[in-house]
């Protein structure tokens, strides 16, 4: 469902993208300037990638090592076919680094906070591309120091 903001335009949506920092971390994305988010082979996560629009925001989450949200990215191109998929059935997007968080927010902190109990990161812990509500987005930003 498309949400319309007070100005009558489509409201941005918020996401969380997981990556193993030893394979592709925040610093790798910053060095590239723009990266392709590909290699996702889970149907729900791929559907989340397909739902993204240019200008949406996402948290960059370090999985396996660190287990923390470290930065914010902007979806720079949406609706792409995953270039690593020879059959062309999986989705991808391009992302640009926006900013590093003032303070990383750990999975442990998120799980310990009852206000975030319904967050997809908590409920569907293996999902590599998750959607956040605007309230969850703002709350996590507050935890990171704004």
From TrEMBL:
Domain EVE: 13-143
Pfam families: EVE
Family annotation (InterPro entries): 5hmC_binding (IPR052181), EVE_domain (IPR002740), PUA-like_sf (IPR015947), THYN1-like_EVE (IPR047197)
Protein name per its UniProtKB record: EVE domain-containing protein
Organism of derivation: Novosphingobium anseongense
